[in-house]
C-alpha cells in the first residue's frame, strides 16, 4: 500500500511538471505569434519564424532557411549568392538559426516541415543545395493589414488602417522605423497621437515623411461614419465597420492590381478595441464569406488577431491615421500640436475627408452614410 502511494505521488508530480512545461510552451508560442503578426522583429526567433512563414521551402531545409535569413536580414553582408570570407563571421551563425527553427517546429508545432523531410532531414539537406542556389524558394503572397479606431464616443467614428502589400516588405519597413526611432531618441517608445505635444510636432512630421517615402508598397484605407446614424452597440458597430473596411479594401487593391492572385490577408487590430473573441470569430467568418462571394483573384483571409500597439510600429501608424482623421472631423475648429500633425499627415499621405473614393491607388476612404 505504501509503495502504491509513493508511485501515485511520483506520477502526480510528473504530470504537474509536464503540465507546467506545456503551459510555458503555449505561453511562448502565443507570444511568438503575437510578435510575428505585429511585425515586431527584435528577437531572432521572430525573424526565423517570419522566414518559415513566408518561404515554405525553408521549413524543409536548414540551408534554405539560413540562406533566406541572411538574404533578408543581413543583405549588406550577403548578396544572395556569395559570402565573402571576411564577412563570414559577421553573419548570424547557422547553429543559432537552426536552434530557433527546431524550437518553433518541434515545440510550438508551427510552420512544420513535411512528413518525409522530418523523417529524412539530413539526406534531404544535401539534395536541397542546388535548388537553393537556383532560387526556387518563392515567397507566399501575403498582405498584412493593421487597424485602429478613433472617435467612438464623438460625432464621427473612424477606423484607420495601413496595408503592407508584400510580406517581404514587412521587415524592411519595420527595420527602417526602428532605425528612425533610434536616431530620434524614441527607441522602444510607442508613437501615440493622443500623447503628441508641442515639442513633438517636428519629430512626428519626420516620421510621417518616413511613411510617405515608403508608401510605394503601402496602402491607407479608412472608414468614417456618424455615430448618430447607427443603431448598434459599440462592439457590433466596430465589427461591421471592420468587415466593410477589409472587404472593400481587398476589392480596391484587386482593382488597382496591387494584390496578386491567391494572396492571403492577415489582419492585426489594436488589442484595446472592444471586440471580444466571439466578435472576432464572427468578423472573420463574414470577411471570408465576402471574399469568397466576390471571387477577387482567390484572395482569402488567413486570420484576425489583436495585438498591443506598443509591440507594433504598424498599429501605431494606423493610430495616427485614425486619430488624425477623427481629430479633423470631430474637432475642426481646434488648434495646437495635434491639429498641426493631423493636417500634415492628411496632406502628405493624400488622405481626404471630402470624397468617398480617390484617384490614388494608395489611399481610399469608405464613407458610410445613412
UniProtKB/TrEMBL annotation:
Pfam families (alphabetical): DUF3800 (PF12686)
InterPro entries xrefs: DUF3800
Residue stretches of biased makeup (Polar residues): 1-11
Domain of life per record: Bacteria
Region (Disordered): 1-21
The protein's name: DUF3800 domain-containing protein
Amino acid at each position: 500500500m505504501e509503495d502504491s502511494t509513493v508511485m501515485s505521488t511520483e506520477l502526480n508530480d510528473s504530470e504537474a511538471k509536464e503540465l507546467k512545461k506545456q503551459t510555458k510552451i503555449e505561453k511562448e508560442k502565443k507570444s511568438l505569434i503575437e510578435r510575428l503578426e505585429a511585425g515586431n522583429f527584435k528577437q531572432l526567433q521572430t525573424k526565423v519564424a517570419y522566414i518559415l512563414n513566408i518561404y515554405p521551402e525553408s521549413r524543409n531545409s536548414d540551408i534554405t532557411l539560413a540562406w533566406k535569413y541572411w538574404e533578408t536580414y543581413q543583405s549588406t553582408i550577403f548578396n544572395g549568392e556569395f559570402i565573402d570570407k571576411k564577412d563570414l563571421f559577421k553573419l548570424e551563425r547557422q547553429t543559432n538559426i537552426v536552434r530557433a527553427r527546431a524550437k518553433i517546429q518541434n515545440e510550438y508545432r508551427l510552420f512544420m516541415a513535411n512528413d518525409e523531410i522530418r523523417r529524412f532531414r539530413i539526406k534531404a539537406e544535401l539534395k536541397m543545395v542546388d535548388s537553393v542556389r537556383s532560387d526556387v524558394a518563392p515567397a507566399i503572397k501575403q498582405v498584412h493589414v493593421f487597424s485602429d479606431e478613433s472617435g467612438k464616443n464623438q460625432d464621427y467614428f473612424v477606423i484607420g488602417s495601413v496595408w503592407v502589400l508584400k510580406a517581404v516588405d514587412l521587415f524592411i519597413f519595420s527595420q527602417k522605423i526602428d532605425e528612425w526611432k533610434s536616431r530620434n531618441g524614441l527607441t522602444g517608445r510607442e508613437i501615440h497621437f493622443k500623447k503628441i505635444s508641442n515639442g513633438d510636432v517636428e519629430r512626428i512630421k519626420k516620421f510621417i515623411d518616413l511613411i510617405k517615402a515608403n508608401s510605394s508598397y503601402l496602402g491607407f484605407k479608412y472608414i468614417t461614419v456618424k455615430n448618430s446614424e447607427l443603431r448598434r452597440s459599440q462592439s457590433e458597430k466596430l465589427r461591421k465597420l471592420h468587415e466593410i473596411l477589409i472587404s472593400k479594401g481587398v476589392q480596391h487593391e484587386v482593382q488597382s492590381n496591387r494584390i496578386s492572385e491567391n494572396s492571403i490577408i492577415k489582419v492585426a487590430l489594436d488589442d484595446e478595441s472592444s471586440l471580444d473573441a466571439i466578435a472576432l470569430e464572427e468578423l472573420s467568418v463574414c470577411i471570408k464569406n465576402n471574399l469568397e462571394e466576390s471571387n477577387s483573384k482567390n484572395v482569402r483571409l488567413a486570420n484576425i488577431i489583436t495585438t498591443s500597439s506598443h509591440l507594433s510600429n504598424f498599429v501605431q501608424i494606423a493610430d495616427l491615421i485614425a486619430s488624425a482623421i477623427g481629430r479633423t472631423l470631430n474637432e475642426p475648429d481646434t488648434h495646437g500640436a495635434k491639429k498641426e500633425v493631423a493636417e500634415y499627415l492628411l496632406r502628405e499621405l493624400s488622405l481626404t475627408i471630402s470624397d468617398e473614393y480617390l484617384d490614388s491607388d494608395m489611399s481610399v476612404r469608405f464613407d458610410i452614410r445613412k
